[in-house]
Amino acid sequence: MSVLSLKVNGKTHSVDVDPTTPLLYVLSDDLGLRGPKFGCGLGQCGSCTVLVKGQAVRSCITAVESVVGIEIITLEGLGTPDKPHAIQKAFIEEQAAQCGYCLNGVILTAKAFLDKNPKATEAEIQQGMSRVLCRCFTHSRMLRAIGRAQKEMAR
Amino acid sequence: MKNPSLPLPEITQTMAQNAADALSRAGFSRRDFIKGTGALIVSFSMGGALAPLEAQQTRAGAFGEPAAPDSPPANEVDSWLAIGADGSVTAYTGKEELGQGMSTVQTQLVAEELCVPFQSVNLIVADTSMTPDQGVTSGSQSHPANFNHSNLAGACATAREALLQLGSKRLGVPADELVAVDGAIRSKSDASKKVAYGELVAGKKFDLKVDPAAKRKPASEWTVLGKPIGRPDMAAMATGTFEYAHNVRVPGMLHGMVIRPSAVGANLMSVDESSVAGMPGLMKVVVKKNFVGVVAEKKWQAIQIANKLDVKWSTPPELPKQETFYDHLRTQKPTRDTLLVNSKDVEQKLAEAATVVKATYYHPYQMHGSVGSSCAVADVQGDKATVWSPTQGVWHQRSTLAMLLGLKPENVHVIFKRGSGCYGINGADTVTFDAALLSQAVGKPVRIQLTRREEMAWENYGFAFTIDERAGLDAQGNIIAWDHEAWSPVLGNRPVYSYPGNVITGFLAGFQPEEFRPRSPAPEPANFSNNSNAIPSYVVGHVGGADHGAGTVKSERALLHNVVSPFWTGPLRSPQRLQNTFAHESFMDELAARAQVDPVEFRLRHLSEPRMIDVVKAAAKAANWVTGPSPFRRKTLARTYFGRGIACVAYEGDNGFAAMVAEVEVDTATGKIGVKRLVVANDAGPVSNPDGLRNQCEGGALQGLSRCLGEEVTWDDHNVTSVDWNSYHSLPLGFAVPKIEVVLLNRPDDPATGAGETAITVVAGAIGNAIFDATGARIRQVPFTPERIKSALAG
Known about the structure:
The complex is a heterodimer of chains A (about 160) and B (about 800). With about 160 residues, chain A is an alpha+beta fold. Helices cover about 35% and strands about 15% of the residues of chain A. Chain A folds into two domains: about 80 residues, Ubiquitin-like (UB roll) (Roll); about 70 residues, Orthogonal Bundle (DNA polymerase, domain 1), CATH 1.10.150.120. Chain A contains six helices and five strands; from the N terminus they run E-E-H-E-E-E-H-H-H-H-H. In chain A, helix 3 packs antiparallel against helix 6. Chain B folds into three domains: about 220 residues, 2-Layer Sandwich (Aldehyde Oxidoreductase, domain 4); about 160 residues, 2-Layer Sandwich (Aldehyde Oxidoreductase, domain 4); about 325 residues, Aldehyde Oxidoreductase, domain 4, CATH 3.30.365. Chain B contains 21 helices and 27 strands. In chain B, the strands form seven sheets. Chain B has a seven-stranded mixed β-sheet, with helices on both faces. Chain B is globular and about 75 Å long. Chains A and B meet through helix 1, helix 2, helix 3, helix 4 and helix 5 of A and helix 7, helix 8 and helix 18 of B.
């Protein structure tokens, strides 16, 4: 075990963990965050996504020691139910979910992609989302929500 | 807006806090409330309006299904509703929010029937300390169970009538001059004459039987139901604050992992605990018959210990070869045979037919494949247990958990917490058993979330099928006889009340799955059963002197052979209905092609059920269906062909109707399919929430597409080999998503039917038929991989 310093959603946390622990378990068990979720543990589905320096990173296969001191943003760090981020607002307005379990990975992957590619075409957005799974198959609404967020974020 | 589904405080209470608050305001606990002890009882004078009610159901199960003996009784209004002194409405339901929008639409129902604002209803979902036993939330049964005249809807209508009577007494105004508005009873002519529900009931009990004849609000007066109200849980989900089963944390909670057998049918030989001795965080190695698990302080520790633990298993028998599995099914003995219809003249009619058409269809095992592997938290201490579970049936779970743990059912408290979308029996029940066994072994709360492999290798798969269809056409191209014969393997099921061994954990811990009961030959059908759409939509379904089917073909036979499965099986969204419908709808298209008749026209010619006819016409119209027999072979590029196909279903015969037109492009060189457009027409009776229903139809359409294009459980000599998202192929968000158009047929005065499984049922048929229309190649095996399409093209 080692005491590590993590910067999550603008706050600094000190955690006493095995440094090889996947970041996901530290976020959900030690910090009690609900956004990042375990889906596959293999980096295949996206449910565990967090933003590390603005990049979408799969926290289930990222050792906590590799992100010490680096700014990490989780879904709850983007906005709140009362003050959602533009992209969260777009998903709420489009009712773009069913069970909602995958929303964490969908929203954060889309956010990182749009930040980098604000003028992406629909086809490029789909390409950007090609490694994210939604098993309720709310795809159409989600892509519509991302398109809506793109317009909103461009303002 | 007050949010009925907002997450609970950080530490989950054993009783949902908001529900406990509502009751404590009224001055009693929920159990006291139901039992009538310690509660003041309002005696409603119904002025003779209510005859003594022998309720249709003395127990809670919908449609006469059994229920736990100590469940709040379904025929009591108090089982479903409580009105606080402050006028707040708490409603109780056994039908869960699984992502299908059921909480939102049930809240709409309560608000509508009780005439209160949507925001003032607090819906309590599936908790054995509070809600009636409604079996499982599955099989498109929630809408019919709670939106027709019994259960939740019946309780609300009965309560509104009772409130009108009470208001009449209080105001001294005849009840027919009163109206229920906005949580109060008021005079129709003088708005100042009114009394609030809270004053009338003051948190006391109704002490009334649900009156199935209580007047429902007509759809023409709806202001809440039938409206596209958004899901109140959406904001919490989108901002990462929603509490799933996966997020439940209780004080002192430990983390578990399980070690499943090395192969299907392997038995435990030895566990060497010394292999993990001294590893950080280790609390216990747990062994119970073939069940092996570990408990540690932290998740990462539990994973490392589970990986290191030296466990030896016996060499299991070989699995049947996958390459020949569909033929293997035909030869398996014993069988359990079920005959659904049998006019006994099929062979004769086929002999007389101008043309006889035969085809065989194959559907693989498929998995629920929840995106989040299943997770539960259990706290078993002494003779009491509390579990937080994403199970679809809390009362079933309570009963089987009690068996597994050797506890009294009344000492087991099951609290539903939403999991990752399940689409049927995913790992939710089995992981709850895992958590409970581990917790019992350490006497502390334990959380476990399965690994991706454990989820995928050991779940109860959707059924594989081999289906033979035969039909005869007369000289005019009309169908004169239809014969359906199917083989399907089964093992285990939902655990229901008494079969923990129906899922892997219960089996490993020593319980047997429900016994396979051979029966051959099948008895002649005495009562009509659609039996999961085993009966084609186009036959008359003549049983017991009456026609029950949706079609016109009089000479009919439908026969099912169940055999023992090497893998666990269970309901997966549209169980059997989807597989049967793939065969029926593909075959119907083959018949239309043989008769050289337009596929829509050919269907209409053989349907008698007006609601089926309507959805077929609506889908064809919305899709601008171009009339003409298939195949069209419309070339769009050098080697690409365009086609359109249609398929339809009368779900379970009468529980919802859907038709779909699919438009595809087929690249004949690569065998790749591009799906351009899916048009769905859906009839679920009254449209209770149009946006929620659209969401279900859209999701069903794409999930059906993923299942028919890529999803297949695979195995080798001993093991399932589709154990992650590289080996089990789900269409990701980035695939070329087709345009989806949904047409809702609203029948506000008809009974509510199933809504969640109709669209998915028709996808494989519609896509296969579109491929045929484009290329003239018929594909009869799901999934429609490029290899299979190329092979079909090669003839």
